[in-house]
């Protein structure tokens, strides 16, 4: 599939020789990211629970891609995905902690404790699992970059999203913690807050009808290829100024840095 970003196509950064692992690569931002990183020359391991989808996407990308079934809530599955990248492609340079859920949307007083905890297992522990599994492999390469997909919900509260806001806020703190502890060994960590993106997650949000995000028009959302391009940018030295925090694609400066259209 060609990139369909609505942005004039320009080549992304040269990531030849790099190996990337993308969680939640079966659709949406993760799928677009896997395709973009591969188009930039990286070898890519696609991880998600929907095995048929990641196998199909990996086959479409070609020899430089591999698929591995992975529930990020389980540390051993994430560690297996990192090992797969190392065995298949020789190491790990880039980890994109993208897997995430927003459902079930519910006010705290009506929320289901098990479902709330499941969101923590995926959105927060899943990111920790990726970081914890990747660091030893990145040390072997002399460094690497970890990109955590953040959200405006990391810093703004929204009705019905307590699980999502709390986990994204915690992920931002993880980004800062990895930067504090591992930047000295050339392991970079940066968050990407993409704004609203036209993916299945926005269909779930729309169906909930709960807060102002659910009232947005589909045309308000950016295509998933835009955050994918931002992730490619963050893999380069030019992205270093965002290390230890979130780059927001709502920012005109960030859009310009990536080469995306600037918001009005
Ligand atoms: P999406 O289309 O719903 O895709 C979510 C991806 O996460 C799927 O590939 C899904 O794969 C994977 N996933 C969910 N649970 C998983 C688990 N337990 N283990 C492994 N993979 C899992 O959503 P999206 O919009 O692309 O979201 C991607 C990321 O961007 C999320 O972190 C989300 O919070 C963030 N984000 C999205 C928006 C937006 O407007 N869309 C805005 C800000 C931030 P399987 O179901 O196959 O496992």
UniProtKB/TrEMBL annotation:
Name of this chain's protein: SDR family oxidoreductase
PANTHER family named in the record: SHORT-CHAIN DEHYDROGENASES/REDUCTASES FAMILY MEMBER
Pfam families for the chain: adh_short
Record InterPro entries: KR_dom, Sc_DH/Rdtase_CS, SDR_fam
Ranges where the Ketoreductase domain occurs: 18-164
Signal peptide start and end residues: none
Organism domain of life: Bacteria
